[in-house]
Automatic annotation (TrEMBL):
Domain Pyruvate carboxyltransferase: 6-273
Source lineage: Bacteria, Pseudomonadati, Pseudomonadota, Betaproteobacteria, Burkholderiales
EC number: 4.1.3.4
Pathway: Metabolic intermediate metabolism; (S)-3-hydroxy-3-methylglutaryl-CoA degradation; acetoacetate from (S)-3-hydroxy-3-methylglutaryl-CoA: step 1/1
A Gene Ontology molecular function term of the record: metal ion binding
Any single biological process term in GO: L-leucine catabolic process
Presence of the UniProt keyword Ribosomal protein in the record: no
Pfam families given in the database record: HMGL-like
UniProt enzyme class: lyase
Record keywords, A-Z: Lyase, Metal-binding
Signal peptide: none
Protein name as annotated: hydroxymethylglutaryl-CoA lyase
Catalysed conversion reaction: (3S)-3-hydroxy-3-methylglutaryl-CoA = acetoacetate + acetyl-CoA
InterPro entries, per database record: Aldolase_TIM, HMG_CoA_lyase_AS, HMGL, PYR_CT
Amino acid sequence: SLPRAVKIVEVGPRDGLQNEKQFVSTDVKIALVDRLAAAGFQNVEAASFVSPKWVPQMADGAEVMAGIARRPGTIYSVLTPNMKGFEAALAARADEIVIFGAASEAFSQKNINCSIAESIARFEPVARAAKENGIRVRGSISCSLGCPYQGDVPVTSVLDVVQRMAALGCDEIDIADTIGVGTPKRTREVLASVTKVFPRERLSGHFHDTYGQALANIYAALLEGIEIFHASVAGLGGCPYAKGATGNVATEDVLYLMNGLGVETGVDLDQVVAIGDFISNAIGRTNVSRAGRALLAK
Ligand code: HMG
Ligand code: MG
């Protein structure tokens, strides 16, 4: 049976925008985050405190966090690869930090310039400092269903990183299909293994839609009892370190699916459709949400 309710983490302001070549103004980013929070998302990934040389689009994270209108109860998350990022996140009053690793050595090197083992050593003080300051810690594991450099990724590699992230005290762990190569069969296999070593209700599915499999993978994950999913409004995005990768699954499409299944999200689809239209126009991008486009055409 399916879960009664799910949590949708809206990652558009971060994962969706990080790869945009043209700088998106801080005001647009702030408006996007505020409108998403108002639409009912419990968790909005708002910024990244990474090196501005690596990801220039996220350079204004502090200004974004300072400019948003905090909704009581909404969790605003930010990415923090190291202590420098953590200090910035603390100053910005982030509710949750995201340490991000990978199940593939090659991807770890390309994305964060260190091995998996080095990344865990780097995350350890970050996670500890977050706990000391009462900040939630989420661990994200890229390439859990495949890697652009290595190809197939064994389940054992995913499990290894899940266990290391768990040992760091992660409140939540994201199983990420960075390049959208996963299919429902693989998704179920990986999640069936991961749920044996980490509590199911604290695992999330982060699916990119490069091969058009993301919604099917979400349904597969629901059948494994997963209750947290990441999505990006209007399907914004792409990964700077994964050539050809498209954005996350579009939030509007996920909401349409959940509404049809009778699974509660607490998020208003019509508002999200309007936000998808707003941000697509603001950055001059085609809205790639199928449900969003259909509902806008009505
Ligand atoms: P590095 O070059 O090895 O680090 O990069 P470093 O410590 O040697 O520092 C180099 C320079 O960066 C220094 O500046 C530091 O001060 C600065 P310089 O002295 O040259 O002027 N620096 C920073 N500046 C601001 N904030 C910081 C910070 N850290 C260092 N936190 C590093 C290592 C991790 C920093 C770098 O590789 C990096 O920033 N990578 C960013 C990767 C990234 O953001 N990727 C996209 C997000 S992950 C993702 O999208 C996947 C996900 O969606 C899940 C999925 O789909 O798979 C989460
Ligand atoms: Mg991603």
